[in-house]
User: What shape does this take?
Amino acid sequence: MSTAIETLVNRDYQYGFVTDVEADTLPRGLNEETVRAISAKKREPAFLLEWRLKAYRRWLTMKEPHWSNVTYPPIDYQSISYYSAPKSTKPLGSLDDVDPELLRTYEKLGISLTEQKRISGVAVDAIFDSVSVGTTMKAELGELGIIFCSFGEAVQEHPELVRKYLGSVVPYSDNFFAALNAAVFSDGSFCYIPKGVKCPMELSTYFRINSADTGQFERTLIIADEGASVSYLEGCTAPRRDTNQLHAAVVELVALDHASIKYSTVQNWYAGDANGKGGIYNFVTKRGKAAGVRSKISWTQVETGSAITWKYPSVILQGDYSTGEFYSVAVVNNHQQADTGTKMIHIGRDTKSTIISKGISAGHGNNSYRGQVKVLRKAEGARNYTQCDSMLIGNQCGAHTFPYIEVDNNSSVVEHEASTSKIGEDQIFYCKQRGLSAEHAISLIVSGFCKEVFQNLPMEFALEAQQLLGITLEGSVG
Amino acid sequence: MTVHGFLDDFSKFAADHGRNPEWLLPVRRAAIERFGERGFPTTRDEDWHFTSAARIADAEFVSLAAGGGDVRAADLEPFTFGATDWTQLVFVNGRYTPELSAVGALPAGVRVASLADALREGVPAVRERLTSLAALDHGAFVALNTALFVDGGFVHVPANVVVERPIHLLFVADADGASGAAHPRTLIIADRHARATIVESYVAVGDPMYFMNPVTEVVLADGAHVTHLRVQRESERAYHVGTTQAHQGRDSKYSSFSFATGAALSRTNIYTVLAGPGGEVTLNGLYMADGTQHVDHQTRIEHVAPNCTSHEVYKGVLDDAAHGVFNGKVYVHPEAQKTDGKQTNNNLLLSPDAHIDTKPQLEIFADDVKCTHGATVGQLDENALFYLRSRGLGADDAKTLLTYAFAADVVQRIDEPAVRDALETLARERFVGAMPAGVG
Assistant: This one.
């Protein structure tokens, strides 16, 4: 059985290739000039440059936090290049103008930008290193008044919306990595769903880090106006390299009255090799504000990649009767580390939140759930239910649970449950006795363990997530 | 008292060689140096995130090293669980008071004494074990206690001896101890297959303001069983920071109960290490607070050896603007396979101003384990209230009954009947006054 798991766990990272396109990359290092250069390259209005500079100056005064349950060598922020764009001489008019090499990359990744339009009805914004290389289905969405474009484009075409909402959920002063992102973010996705519109298709962003020594600092901003709803998907991959690369993204969601946003992530950045060499540091700030009455924000994440994952998609439940959800599967294998969870801040009355977190640790991996449920004095009738389960595969890994429950009124009900256990030997035995191989049995048991989360993913993603899980855990059961 | 105040205390104290066995002085020096370097914890320390020690750090306390006090036997009656045949050591303002104490019939070889006496006599077990468990890395308050303790309890039960009656260590503060700081130190040793029940009470006569900083070390050798009931009923103006550190050998069993209802600010740390295979630990507790009381519990169960079991149930009832804190850690080392751990924390908030911060925590490095924890915060079940009212109970009576039932559930897990009954009565009276006729 141990060999079965070993093969399972040690399967190769199939997205580890490098695309050979000429890139326009800023020299390594960070100073005010870098920030100005990025802003100038993106031809940004003055307010944005000001904002970036404020963030940069604030960042200089901040210290990198170290409270998380992960360890990594110090990051040299001067050895990173903060901007890298595929070189193209003419501005992109349509997808047909995109470098064919790039399009092939996306095809290898399974996202064919051109095919996408016809078959799946999913609109995709693809981010290659730092810039958006193409957004599909734009016209169809435009008819409904939905704005779905790269962040850079939004800055040019809808500066008033960007100005109003940028930093309204994650201010530039929020934390060290958010400040860094605010100073140097290069691109990302922007999405605005106007009043009363239900977005008819899934919106999707695909992030790809290609160049060496670059950091990726994208920024996503999604706004659902009154009564609007949208489901948004995010996927990530990176080539395999021996050095660690930093990914410090910020995602902000704003849901106004009766609006709902569902944000799903399948994160599969390169995790490093079996000895823990290389891989992405995924230090991300994701936060949604359920600002309006009866608004709803739902996070679903499947975290299988990255050498280190450190993120807490959170919901500020500000509107009365608003709802926050967090469904997470985090898998660590080899030397991966994950410190992830959520924050649910109950401010409005009768707000509800649900947290379902499944952690799977294998190899030498360390997986921590860290979550905060905070119920403020005025959040009368608030309700939270939290369940976090951990599964351990092998005896070199670790699972940790750090829930913080802070309740400041007596009309709220908060429940937290957690369990940690080994993958069931009798379950494996049962499956094997029915003719399944050990590997299949494990895959089946793990899928069952994660079912509550997977069923919250859009269908195509759920399939991908299940496969990914299988790959990540390949060879890990003994 | 400020850090400097305590440092001064120590220099006076260290000059007084009479009280210090030679071997203890370097330990005390190391402790005070550590305390001097680090000072009091702040809310930036993860372990003190929800409890501010500032009120203790900023207050001016005088050293109570000399003891004294004016407590009579009759004053102690409410605190003795109606027992007449227990061995009971009474410490007034931190010092042993023989007139109020009674050593009952104890099996041969059992030693129950004040720690000061045991130190003076040079009991070898004291030298071997004292300060061996609660060490410097336990933080500022343990360091302070280590540097400054003068007295406390010493209990030694030799191998294969069963002590039937509970041994009561009663720490009482009165008006003479007002504005004082006491650091009682207790050492409990149960040798192989020994059994004993220890009750440790912290109480006050009157309403003085003082700082009580006790540390208790409990050594359980292989196969020993110790039931350790801790009752904190300090004056409502007092500050209490107490630490218990147990160390468990193979197949030992440690049952702890912590009852906390007194003090303006209390922090109780209960730590145990399951060092031998087959060990069992039960940590239960009940905290009840009202007014502006702050009550904090921190527990840590460290599974070092395989095949150990830990069970933990803590319940809290908070009224008015009381603030409750609970932090329970279960740490499973890589070698501790087949660990079975269960932890539960339930809180009942009776008032809109009551506040609770709870943080149950699992850190697991072994794979073949079964660990769960759960925490809830809520109020009385409306359906249960409705049911009782439909049976003719008034709204207040129904609330009383349900609150009592919530608290009694954990108190009933105490094995020692006298203590269980006394705490049940206290739980009943604490919030709700008398029970409705025919109930309770």
